[in-house]
Every structure is written in structure tokens, then in C-alpha cells.
Write a structure and sequence with these properties.
about 500 residues
């Protein structure tokens, strides 16, 4: 039985008006002992908290008391009750069976010879041994002071252990999140727990949290409050609210954490040259003993915030580079960059409909945009010929699949590696009549099968130098016609059932 569960700490923190008394259990079969103890200690207080005496008259009754939810700081325990060693057996029960190492146990006996002090101290985990003849008012006060002080310190250490464990869990929860909206929401929840770890009689709320990071001359801001989560990117300090500006500029100038009005502001300057703050509104003051835990938590939160922003920036750069590269290839054949972007979006949607995981869907949305990168090796006269290609020209055109594979293969980057598969496979056919390797069915990579549908559908809908655009219904019919020969029939069925979503992608990004 762990007498310091986390929910008890929070429960005490919420109840700010009630002063919890120190609970003392008196275990003795002599009624006069209870009366004397009550009389001698009725006005005793420790750290401005009164005591509350609970009386039982046997070890059996004491066991029932301790197996309830009551928590006792001190147990005054008689040795001889229903048996000569009832008190000693009860002490062993407390320590070994209940695993209660917090309550202080003081043995009191009128028959010291029955349980010699030396052997009892040696063999039992108790905190004092007194003869009843010694227990005058002054003696009891001394016992209460030393025992309650020891109990307080043990509980404090245990609280620190629980707090550290919860802090580690909170930090671990935060650092595993890859989405800024979810990140902000979880920070708000975990921050409330951290704020109240060191608060024994005050519940601290944090109704508003915001973070600002200066990244690549831009200010990235997250904000969480009761109304929702907000993300913002702006150029220059004037692009964020006035109060946020003041806190950010003050933090950059002083390079220190500070309390301003009802906000606690944490500042961080990273080795990568990023300046960041994480601030929260607190309607009650944060106690000094809580600030160390709060700073440790916020320090890890800021690092995660910066890492997310850097990762997003890298991802955006990668997306832009891939879109530009794919668009550059299409521009050589007098087509627009919208084609490659739409192909990526069709491919992502089809992958989602096929129940692929989020990582796969995100990768194919980029990788599919590079399906025709091998056209860089196809001469312009062939690429832009406004008529049907002859046999020799067609053989050269087909080489764009293998050229794309050669350009993209072996990078070790998961997106580019997927793009290499798409480049080599997107003109293969389900029936084995495609090129360059006449693969069929499952021999063709899934990303190749998906992109084949995405590419053909969009190409049919677009004007080309050798053809006029088809209507979307005509293009849809052509894809359905190709099920089981040109295309994977399962994917075609998903395309047909969800055609309106594919149609909307085209309408949202026209030529």
C-alpha cells in the first residue's frame, strides 16, 4: 500500500481552505492511557496544523484502521495487549504486509522486560521505545515534534520522487508529439499537473499558454487557450500581438526568465541560434519551490517546440524543392506545375483510401510528384512533338522511366527512394504489358500502381501538345475501363467509389 499516491497530492492541492490535521493513532488496551494522551496533547500543533487522535484498544482493531484509507503520521503503540507480543506483531504487519514506511511508530510499554529495548530496536523497524512511566506531557511533545518532523520529511522526499516520475512522463509525452496543434493542447494539460506538483494547498490553473520562436527571420507562434489552439507565422515583431511582442523582446534583451503581471515567461536561446519563449498565464502565483520543476518542464517543452518548427521547416523546404523539381520537368513538356501537385494529391488520397499509414500517405504525396523526373533526359523535339511518336521516338520516350530510376535511386531518403520506385513503375501495367520491365500485378510496387492511376487520370483531363483535354467523366470511364488490365482493380474500385473527392482536387487546382 503506497500512502502517497499522486491523486492524493492533487486532491490536497485543490482544497485550499481546509487545513489537514496530523492524524495520530493510539493503540493501547488501557483506557487511561488514551485519556492522558488526549489531555496532554489537546492544544498541540505542528507547523500550524493541529493533531487528530484516533483511539483503538487492540492490535486487531488497529489493523482494521490501517487497512482503510486513513493515513496516520504517528502510531503510539502498546506492546502487551491481547497477547504479549501483539504490538510487535502489529509493527511487523505495518512495515512488511502494508509496506508502510511512512508512519512513525513509537512503542510504549508498562512491562519493559517483556520486550527488551535493545532487541526491539534491532529487530523491528520502529522509531522509538518508551516506558509508559516516562510519558509525561513534555515527553509526549518531544516525541510528537521529532516524529512528525520525520514523517513530513519522508513524505516530502516521496512527493519529490512522484513529482520527478510524473515530470519525466509529462516530458516524454510532449517530446513524442509531431503535430503543433496536438503539441500545444498536450502542453496545456501537462503544465497544469506540473504546476500543482509542489502545491500542497493551492490549485494553480493555466488557462492560456503561448510560445514564440524566431526562425529564419520569421516569428512562429503557438497559442492555446479555452477557445482553442492557434498557429501563426509572421514576418517581423509587429506581426504578433502587442503583449506577446513585449514579453518576447524583454526576454531577448534580458536573456532570463521573468514574471510579468499574471504571466510566467521562460526564455531559451539554442545552440542553433534560435530565440524562443514559452509563457503561461497563471491566475495564482507560482510558488518558488515549484519553479524549479516548472523550469525543467518548460525547458524540455521549448526544445521540442523548436525541434518541431525545424522539422516542419525542413519538410516544407523538401516539399517545395520536390514540387519545383517536378514542375521543372513538366515545364519542359509545356505542361504546368499544377499537374505534378495534383498527381501527388491524388496519390495521397488513394493511399489513404487503401488504408496505408499516415507516414506512407505523406511520403507518396511528395514522391509521386517526381514520377516523370526522367524526362530530363528526353530531347525536346520528342517531348513536345505535336503528333504521334514513331517507333524509334517512342523507345526513347519510354527511357524516361529508367532515367528517373537512375537519378533517384539509392539516396537513403525514404521519400526519394519511394520516388525512384514510382519513376520505374508508373508505366507498368497490371496485365504485364507495360514498360520498362513488363512487371505484372503485385510485382509492381504499390506506389507505382497508385501513381499510375493518378497520372493517367490527370493527364487525360489536361490539354497536351498532342491532344485536347477530356472531360472528367470521360477520364473516369477510361480509368474504370482499365481495371484488371492496365490498373490494379482494387485501387480502381476505390477511385470509382470516391470519385467526387478526386474531382474536387482537380477543381481546386485547375490548369
Amino acid at each position: 500500500m503506497d500512502w502517497l499516491q499522486d491523486d492524493e497530492v492533487v486532491k490536497q492541492a485543490v482544497d485550499s481552505k481546509h487545513v489537514e490535521p496530523w492524524k495520530i493513532l493510539v493503540v493501547d488496551d488501557d483506557e487511561s492511557v488514551h485519556q492522558v494522551t488526549q489531555l496532554a496533547m489537546k492544544r498541540f500543533e505542528f507547523e500550524q496544523r493541529p493533531i487528530e487522535l484516533h483511539s483503538v484498544y487492540s492490535a486487531a482493531q488497529a489493523k482494521e484502521k490501517l487497512q482503510s484509507s486513513e493515513r496516520y503520521a504517528l502510531i503510539l503503540l502498546d506492546v502487551v495487549m491481547e497477547t504479549e507480543h501483539a504490538g510487535l506483531d502489529f509493527a511487523r504487519f505495518v512495515r512488511q504486509d502494508l509496506q508502510n514506511v511512512y508512519s512513525r511508530i513509537i512503542l510504549r510499554t508498562g512491562q519493559p522486560g517483556v520486550a527488551p529495548e535493545r532487541s526491539v530496536i534491532r529487530d523491528y523497524d520502529i522509531d522509538g521505545y518508551k516506558a509508559k512511566s516516562q510519558l509525561q506531557s513534555q515527553d509526549l511533545e518531544l516525541i510528537f515534534y521529532t516524529s512528525l518532523r520525520a514523517y513530513r520529511d519522508i513524505c516530502m522526499l516521496q512527493n519529490h520522487r512522484h513529482n520527478l516520475k510524473r515530470l519525466i512522463i509529462a516530458i516524454s509525452t510532449i517530446t513524442q508529439i509531431g503535430d503543433l496543434v496536438e503539441f500545444t493542447s498536450v502542453v496545456m494539460e501537462e503544465l497544469k499537473l506540473v504546476l500543482n506538483m509542489s502545491s500542497a494547498n493551492l490549485y494553480i490553473d493555466a488557462p492560456k499558454v503561448f510560445g514564440i520562436c524566431q526562425l529564419d527571420e520569421k516569428l512562429q507562434m503557438i497559442e492555446g487557450e479555452l477557445s482553442g489552439i492557434h498557429l501563426f507565422t509572421g514576418n517581423g515583431i509587429d506581426s504578433i500581438p502587442q503583449k506577446h511582442q513585449e514579453y518576447f523582446l524583454r526576454a531577448k534583451q534580458t536573456k532570463q526568465n521573468f514574471i510579468a503581471e499574471d504571466h510566467y515567461v521562460y526564455f531559451h536561446h539554442s545552440q542553433k541560434g534560435l530565440d524562443s519563449i514559452l509563457a503561461f498565464q497563471s491566475l495564482q502565483p507560482v510558488k518558488k519551490e515549484a519553479q524549479q520543476l516548472v523550469d525543467l518542464f518548460l525547458g524540455n517543452v521549448v526544445l521540442t517546440f523548436e525541434s518541431l518548427l525545424l522539422a516542419n521547416s525542413i519538410e516544407e523546404t523538401q516539399q517545395l524543392a520536390i514540387s519545383l523539381m517536378g514542375g521543372a520537368m513538366e515545364s519542359r513538356s509545356k505542361e504546368t506545375g499544377s499537374h505534378v501537385i495534383r498527381v501527388g494529391l491524388y496519390a495521397k488520397l488513394l493511399a489513404q483510401l487503401n488504408n496505408q499509414n499516415q507516414s506512407y500517405c505523406d511520403k507518396i504525396s511528395l514522391a509521386a510528384q517526381l514520377h516523370d523526373v526522367g524526362k530530363v533526359g528526353v530531347p525536346d523535339l520528342i517531348l513536345n512533338k505535336p503528333a504521334k511518336l514513331d517507333a524509334d521516338e517512342w523507345e526513347i520516350m519510354k527511357q524516361h522511366t529508367t532515367k528517373g530510376w537512375e537519378i533517384l535511386k539509392g539516396t537513403g531518403n525514404p521519400v526519394i527512394d519511394m520516388a525512384a520506385n514510382i519513376a520505374i513503375d508508373h508505366h507498368e501495367r497490371w496485365d504485364g504489358a507495360g514498360y520498362p520491365h513488363a512487371k505484372k500485378q503485385q510485382e509492381i510496387s504499390l506506389e507505382g500502381r497508385i501513381t499510375a492511376i493518378a497520372d493517367v487520370f490527370d493527364a487525360l483531363c489536361c490539354r497536351r501538345c498532342y491532344k485536347e483535354p477530356w472531360s472528367m467523366d470521360e477520364a473516369k470511364a477510361e480509368i474504370i475501363k482499365g481495371a484488371g488490365n492496365h490498373f490494379d482493380p482494387t485501387l480502381v474500385e476505390l477511385f470509382e467509389l470516391n470519385f467526387n473527392a478526386f474531382k474536387q482536387i482537380y477543381l481546386d487546382r485547375p490548369e
